[in-house]
Amino acid sequence: MPSLSGSDELIFFVNGKKVVVKKPDPEVTLLFYLRRELHLTGTKFACGEGGCGACTVMVSRYSASSKQIRHYPVTACLVPICSLHGAAVTTVEGVGSIRTRVHPVQERLAKCHGTQCGFCSPGMVMSIYTLLRNHPDPTPEQVTEALGGNLCRCTGYRPIVESGKTFCANPTVCQVKRPGRCCLEQEEEEAGSVHTREKMCTKLYDKDEFQPLDPSQEPIFPPELIRMAEDPNKRRLTFQGERTTWLAPATLPDLLELRAEFPQAPLIMGNTTVGPDIKFKGEFHPVFVSPLELPELCVLNSEGDGVTVGSGHSLAQLSDALQSIVSQQPSERTETCRALLNHLRTLAGVQIRSMATLGGHVATRATVSDLNPILAAGKTTIHLVSKEGERQIPLDGAFLEGSPRAGLRPGEIVLSVFIPYSSQWQFVSGLRQAQRQENAMAIVNAGMSVRLEDGSSTIRDLQVFYGGIGPTVLSASRTCGQLVGRQWDDQMLGEACRGILDELRLPPGAKGGQVEFRHTLMLSLLFKFYLRVQRALSKLDPQKFPDIPEEYTSALEEFPIGTPQGTQIFRCVDPHQPPQDPVGHPVMHQAGLKHATGEAAFVDDLPLVSQELFLAVVTSTRAHAKIISIDTGEALALPGVVAVITAEDVPGENNHQGEIFYAQREVVCVGQIVCTVAADTYAHAREAAQKVKVEYEDIEPRIITIEQALEHSSFLSPERKIEQGNVEQAFKHVDQVIEGEVHVEGQEHFYMETQTILAVPRAEDKEMVLHLGTQFPTHVQEFVATALNVPRNRIACHMRRAGGAFGGKVTKPALLGAVAAVAAKKTGRPIRFVLERGDDMLITAGRHPLLGRYKVGFMKSGLIKAVDLEFYINGGCTPDESQLVIEYVVLKSENAYYIPNFRCRGRACKTNLPSNTAFRGFGFPQATVVVEAYMTAVASHCDLLPEEVREMNMYKRPSQTAYRQRFDPEPLRRCWKDCLEHSSFHARKRAAEDFNRQSRWKKRGLAMIPMKYTIGVPVAYYHQAAALVHIYLDGSVLLTHGGCELGQGLHTKMMQVASRELGIPTSYIHLSETSTVTVPNAVFTAGSMGTDINGKAVQNACQTLMARLQPVIRRNPKGKWEEWIKKAFEESISLSATGYFRGFQTNMDWDKERGDAFPYYVYGAACAEVDVDCLSGAHKLLRADIFMDAAFSINPAVDIGQIEGAFVQGMGLYTTEELKYSPKGKLRSQGTNDYKIPTVTEIPEEFHVTLVHSRNPVAIYSSKGLGEAGMFLGSSVISAIWDAVAAARKERKGAESVPETLAVRSPATPEWIRMACVDQFTDMIPRDDPSTFTPWSICVS
Q1: For the CA atoms of the chain, what is the radius of gyration?
Q2: Can you say where in the cell this protein is located?
Q3: At what angle do helices 946-953 and 924-942 cross, to 10 degrees?
Q4: Which residue numbers belong to the known binding site?
Q5: How far is Cα 666 from Cα 659, in angstroms, rounded to an integer?
Q6: Binding-site annotation, residues for [2Fe-2S] cluster
Q7: How far apart are CA 78 and CA 83, in angstroms?
Q8: pLDDT at 925
Q9: 561-597 CB burial, b ≥16 within 10 A, e <16
């Protein structure tokens, strides 16, 4: 650190208020400062690496040179506060508040039902708000683009986009291809005509309620900041922190002086590279130099032979500049510009593009850079400057590959980049393939250019650059040199492919894995470029240069990024229902406005408690090992550290029900908690945790995969089995028998709010109070009491809301709560325990990976006579929920099909991975995708459509399941029939077949899936529930129940129930929190039964109260509610009541293999249509139609939101979400960079959901639980992908080829799709002997 005297004041504005920081610390981010110093907790912490958008805020700056104010979104977790000098920051609190005025953006997000858990909502609001500040009348495409950097795990995005589209000047034209009237009107008529002719509705909200947007009412930019920006006497600023110094030069000479003095100091502009490297790679820099807003770095000149762009331009500004240039210049001059523009649309999200600069992007020379390969191919030059002078260097292969002779010298900076215009016979392209279309780093990207001799196809110059193939961007310079002078023809292409494979060869165990896929992508992307040039030549001279075959043109078309639209259809409320009765209405989430304003408080939003400490974890780095020693000396010596907590500090049990709180003597997985560090700040705790030294001695065996567990007979629980008929005998009397296996990998919950606990010890009676987000407060209470060795009545758990859960907060908060409580007990001080995203993913695990093996006997007609199934799940190292999950897998394994001879066996494997746990669908989504795989295989062998085989084998009449529970499948048949009809399945299937005949390199797939989903659990006492209702003397009602609000709208529905039962408006009813103090012994909120059981308890309590009030009401029937309550009090009538529901009487006898395991079933059907790019492995979901048996929906908006969100989450499970483990059991996917949940661009372009009405007498108001059912319907997407891939394989192999059983797996990632679409390029790829190398990652299913 330089020896400097004092620190300058940092001045910026937040929400119109001036902030002056006397001693700003360069290591403090804007997110931390907003939340901890300014107590603006609406801006959320979710990933810490700029990948999720939950911390989005708007930054505004005034440019003295252009005299303009620029508003742009940023991720506050990456913004150092020292970079904000002279800037204005707007957070969600500055946009609007329920205490003052809710902004139209916030209002519409809430009223369009765009919030569920609400954790991502402030970020969504800020992204749309910033867009409107720049474009008050945005296009739908701009709305979609603005949301591309924001992740949501709950809603499925559709309602969020819809809320943004309400601001568009020209509403999107209806694209549901129906003749005549608006699709909504026709859909309404058609829906009403089905079966019951009930009146169906399509409006989930009333847009006439929206307040108008008035841009003139937005806050003005602070005049003081304009004066600061225009100050002619600016000087260098110095900000001195605890460990680092921030230097902000005022002029270019000053910058060069600092660069010469501190040549190793990073230049900070957007901090999108340096920030994550500091946090995740442990880098440390004593000095930062930040040349923001220097005019010399912001030049833009498009005159002459090219474009000069200052290095200080953000990528968003670069995009704007290039769009302007492309619109003004002839197309042949803008080949490079258009290639860059194309990549800029999907590079990261809008927030990162607004922060990252061109200079930083060029100078870092990252292998995953999307722009550098294109810049290199376009012969870009870099203008460098230092104290010694100026020079220009080519941005070429030598520069990108890190050659010392071709890079920046000490003291130099990138001043600008010169992008030359292209010529008529020059062609430049940028190509990429990532795990998902937007906001994902490329697996492989490329920049390619060719300059042909004028008027010919002779190569004068060829440039090919690849990213993602090595540690740097690589140039195929040798191959390109050999091809100069050759003709641009098929022979040249073949030589180029062979040359590139020889020149750029990845080792088989290369970092990142996917070696064969990456090799294939090199050739596929080259082929796309080859075709593009061929077509361009044909357009220049059709006589001289023949066009490419028509069926090849699809290779040139990239999947468009459209704006999703669709319909939501549900049964209208009975017109005779009292107007104030809210049941059946699409009521807004009771906390929706608070979500949108950031005023809904989550655990980490709670104010700091006096003497509070922060907890950081030390986790095992070995999968199975003895702990030899734990050295805490260096950690304890660090400033701010109060204690290191180990197993020795646990007062009670350290191992409860097989779950270990702190590792003791040995570790059984990578990620197991060994110890924790408590310190005065999280930064100090985290630093100290990194200093704890743990010595291990490995233990064999180390079991990571299911296959390894089977080899060692390593299981967590006994086998479960159900069987009907005579399976072995039936196999002898069928036309054909096929066998296969399907691997289904796991899934990360990726709830937006990571596991968070605030544990507060009380001074007397050994009490402990915990605030946390959980689905099971009783379980937390049990584990904490056990760990502290106190009765449960000393432990109070408070749960107001969780920022998403999906099963991940059923058991894991109990273990983590015990860990935090032990720390609070040892230190005697409150403990705040917030897991970072990477630690959360590592420690808490997720959905069980599954291996399914099937044997199916069937007739030539497609009728299945016998099925024998074996399922194995990877349970991890401790029991957790694995036994219950495998029981669900077995019980649900038939899905919607009647197989007369059916056997299913299942077992949970014990491995050295973190214990997998409950996840939405609870085993059903993994197991039944295996069922659909064998349905598809049977169809292939019978030359039938899979849908024909599904319908043939579906339950058709009142029946009993394989475990002897009776049910009526009539709603299943109705959902199937309606979906078949209203999705126009057969017409679209014929259209897809026509498309596939005319398109070689893109294939269209269509699939329709039925579903019979179970609700609840086979254990009766898990269905009991209780509620507590107080009526106060002013007539207001306080409602409490045992269910947890996770975003699923449970509290909203409970208020609707109470409103109906008490006959009062919901505005009279308040629901605060779930607590073990008010409702004891509550069961978990899971299994889609939250409304079923808690609704019954609330109903019971309200009916008890109304029975007490009846004498008062009878005497004054026309009186008001308040009068009745006052009179009841005067008559000493109790105005408080508990409600209780004993539960559904379910049971399952595993010895007899029979039982009434579930209270009822939910039925549904979904149809999905996808396009697949056979060359890259990308896919595009074109349309999804969902028909869900909702019986009577208490709240159609909530239920449709649950269905859409579950469908998109299921789609993620089956496509983009891929967990990767090292062979030694280390999770490699630990953040937004490595794990890709769907974004707004992945959801269907057309998204139609219909709630089908039926009856369900066992549940409250004849409703059904719909929280999980939609998850499996996402499998319609993977089935459609299988259909498209099968079409590609059939075309390659020939129409007369023998039917095959496609070796399917889940997820169907770009890698699987591409390698399954075998062609001449996959045939060229060398295959390495697996026994000769250690792979970078492995499948654990």
Answers
A1: 31
A2: Cytoplasm
A3: 110
A4: 47, 52, 55, 77, 116-117, 120, 152, 154, 267-274, 348, 357, 361, 370, 414, 805-806, 1046, 1087-1090, 1202, 1266
A5: 14
A6: 47, 52, 55, 77, 117, 120, 152, 154
A7: 11
A8: 97
A9: bbbbbbbbbbbbbeeeeeeebbbbbbbbbbbbbbbbb
Contacts of 302 (CB under 8 A, 6+ apart): 308, 321, 325, 328, 329
Q: How far apart are CA 986 and CA 1082, in angstroms?
A: 48
| Binding-site residue positions for Mo-molybdopterin | 116, 154, 805-806, 1046, 1087-1090, 1202, 1266
Predicted TM-score (pTM) of the model is 0.96
Strands in 306-310's sheet, in edge-to-edge order, are 300-301, 306-310, 413-420, 381-386, 389-394
Q: What is the pLDDT of residue 1246?
A: 97
Rounded CA separation 1109/663 (Å): 57
Which pair of structure tokens corresponds to residue 302? 């498009």
Q: Phi and psi at residue 205, in whole multiples of 5°? A: -155, 165
Give the C-alpha separation, 988 to 971, whole Å: 24
Is 1282 in contact with 1007 (CB distance < 8 Å)? Answer: yes
Class of domain 10-173+214-233: alpha beta
Query: What is the model's pLDDT at position 403?
Result: 86
Which top CATH class is 708-747+846-1017+1152-1324? alpha beta
Residue 466 pairs with which residues in a beta bridge?
446, 474
Q: Which of 881, 878, 905 is nearest to 891 (CA)?
A: 905
Other CB atoms within 10 A of residue 993 CB? 13
Topology of domain 611-700+755-834 in CATH is: Aldehyde Oxidoreductase; domain 3 (3.90.1170)
Question: Where are the CATH 3.30.365.10 domain residues in the chain?
Answer: 708-747+846-1017+1152-1324, 1020-1141
Domain 294-550, CATH homologous superfamily name and number: CO dehydrogenase flavoprotein, C-terminal domain (3.30.390.50)
Please identify which residue in the block is written with the tokens 């209405």.
585
pLDDT at 195: 40
The identity of residue 701, as a single letter, is P
Segments of the chain with pLDDT less than 70: 1-5, 170-197, 1295-1299
Start-to-end Cα distance in the chain: 50
**Cis omega before residue 701 (within 30°)?**
yes
Which residue type occupies 492?
M
Question: What pLDDT is stored for residue 1293 in this prediction?
Answer: 81
Tell which residue, 245, 419, 432, has the closest CA to residue 325: 419
Pick from 711, 649, 717, 708: which is nearest to 678 by CA? Answer: 649
